[in-house]
Amino acid sequence: MRAVVTRVRSASVAIDGTTVGQIGPGFLILLGVTQDDTPALCKKLAEKVLGLRIFRDENDKMNKGLSDIGGSVLVVSQFTLYGDCSHGRRPNFLAAAGPDLAIPLYEQFLAECERLGFPPQHGEFGAYMQVESVNDGPVTMIVDTRDLK
To answer: Would I find tRNA-binding among this entry's keywords (predicted)?
Structure first.
């Protein structure tokens, strides 16, 4: 699994012009699932992402986490995180998991956010969505389960 985590002042996701998820300060998480992902990796990713300390403290150091600032989470599924642009100009998405695997893991990630104390706002898997965010910093981290120890 791969997560692109952006520290935001606010973020929202809309479908057909209707806002379906909206947060103030916190994390906008774009979430991609690949073919060899598992529920255990999903849990590990959620714990890692939601534990990131990337908010500024009183000394202007990235030392505070979501709970320290009372932050929120907006999760948006994004299969394009596994797009391969190495050949030609049109990416292929062969590494992205199909819906049979990706939907349950996306839903588990949402449940893990809830379990960890951050009930997520979210988009709709497979929908054409419009995502808006006011990046803070900007600070953006890429967390991939293949890199976690």
So the answer is: yes
- 43 token code pair: 């849990």
DSSP secondary structure string, 2-45?
A: EEEEEEEEEEEEEETTEEEEEESSEEEEEEE-BTT--HHHHHHH
Decide: 8 and 27 in contact? Cβ < 8 Å: yes
DSSP 70: T
Q: How far apart are the C-alpha atoms of 38 and 14, rounded to whole Å?
A: 29
Report residue 99 as tokens: 């819906």
Q: For the chain, give the mean pLDDT.
A: 96
Q: Is 38 a catalytic residue?
A: no
What was the pLDDT predicted at 8?
98
Q: Catalytic one among 19, 38, 80, 130?
A: 80
18 is catalytic: no
Counting Cβ atoms within 10 Å, is residue 29 exposed (0-12), middle (13-18) or buried (19+)?
buried
